[in-house]
Amino acid sequence: MSTGVSRTVLHRLRAAAPAPAASSGTWSRLPSSCCRLPAGPRCEARRGLSVSGRGTMNVFNREMKKRQKNWAASLQDGHQYDYLRDEVGAHRHCDVTKTFPLALDIGAGKSHIAEHLNKDVVERLFLTDVSEKTLKQSRQSEIPTHCVLADEEFLPFKENTFDLVVSSLSLHWINDLPGALRQIHQVLKPDGVFIGAMVGGETLYELRCSLQLAETEREGGFSPHVSPYTAVTDLGNLLGQAGFSMLTVDIDDVQVHYPGITEVMTDLQGMGESNCAWNRRSLLHRDTMLAAAAIYKEMYGNEDGSVPATFEILYMIGWKPHESQAKPAKRGSATASFGDLSQIGQPTSTKKT
């Protein structure tokens, strides 16, 4: 498994941009109970608060997340909050040079990935999302698309269906992440590939720390206001446990500069990325908010008066095993010793006769 780290810096501008044209792709509505696959084992304890009857951690209110995304999609200027998804959707989709007859985009939203693909890469694409209003705003693409209203936790597709599965900034709201990865593995054909991006554990650490310090100072304690996220150290293990091979995991820290803490939280709402954990606190006192804004600027503020917000993006690639894929050599089949490496490049001595 290979890993890497990179950094991207964005400057949040308030100027409105024209909204992208909506797609005219085929629409189909499937209830979340259609073709439900069995849920997997419980996630790691730090992601959860309680255990559901299925044995999985129940951290996030999925119905609340659907309402948040539908509300964000109903905003007239909602396109101005798409900058993070556009940035992430433009990356990693060309990492595999291969033609895929049938592809699936999980948590597609407004299809931020499809607009960067062409028919030479994907011949037909299915878009799924839990938000109907968001799917109706999917952008135009030269690839024939089919929209399916479905929960990311219950994929309504048969085994060995897709040649490619992609997902961008959606899996971090999944209660049963190991189970979701296993479902993705199931719907992939042998030698199919999964390319995904999700928010990592260090996301919005500036906002998290500022709110915690402000609440501790003003109220004598703090409540979680930023959702828990998966650590990069766990992601490779989860992909391997789901059955993927030839794994690649890397990190991109996307840093966005805002005028202040209010703009950070407003944009999170506009993205449909507000906290939906069951233990979230719905209200924030005015004094606490003012204190958090001051702490944010004091601890993290830039010289120009703006404040940064860091989004840790975890990119992953995993293949469904197939006999045609490269395999490691059998143990003991080496023809050279590591001890001989020091002799490489040294002149060989010749004896005169």
Automatic annotation (TrEMBL):
Residues 104-195 form the Methyltransferase type domain. It comes from the Eukaryota. GO terms for cellular component: mitochondrion. SUPFAM superfamilies: S-adenosyl-L-methionine-dependent methyltransferases (SSF53335). Its main location: mitochondrion. Belongs to the methyltransferase superfamily. This is Arginine-hydroxylase NDUFAF5, mitochondrial. It comes from Sparus aurata.
